[in-house]
Amino acid sequence: MIKKIKKLVEKLLNKQAVLDLDNDGKIESYREEIKGVFHQFNVMYEKLDEVNGKLTSVINDEQENVKWAESQMARSKERIAKAQAEQDINAKHQDKLKEFIV
Question: What is the pLDDT of residues 61-70, one digit of tens each?
Answer without folding.
Answer: 999 999 999 9
